[in-house]
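Appendix B. One record, verbatim.
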Amino acid sequence: MRRNITCLVGTAAAVALLFGYDTSTAGPTRPTTVIASPATGVAGGAATGTAPSATSTGATTTGSATQAAVKTVTGEAADTRWGPVQVQISVSGGRITGVSVLQQPDGNGRDREINDYALPILKQATLSAQSANIDMISGATVTSEGYAQSLQSAIDQAGL
């Protein structure tokens, strides 16, 4: 009888510890994406107090360096089962220089938590790859797929 009670209490304690264990060791992280202006090397590109126009063409002169104009292109919204994802890119000199997410799933706190973690990684991957051929984020597969679909739409519209 004692053995049965000991086994039962031990099993209950093990199950309680197992369900109480938090598998995340670092918690949600928020990577920071800093984009340096090609002409100035300063984050945000506003070292001289003027930013290039989002829809201008040609080149603008900042000090002694010439900076290509920035063109902004919005991709089509990708409908996912958790909500739409829509990406906007900034293109300068035939390269993607910035990425903004205009729409993202935000129906509940978990959606926001996933997107706070995944979207900065996807943005950085876009700037590194200069294409929509980027890795999906584990745990944010649906958002990653919608992001890549909208990103490809924007890239196609930009003619890259």
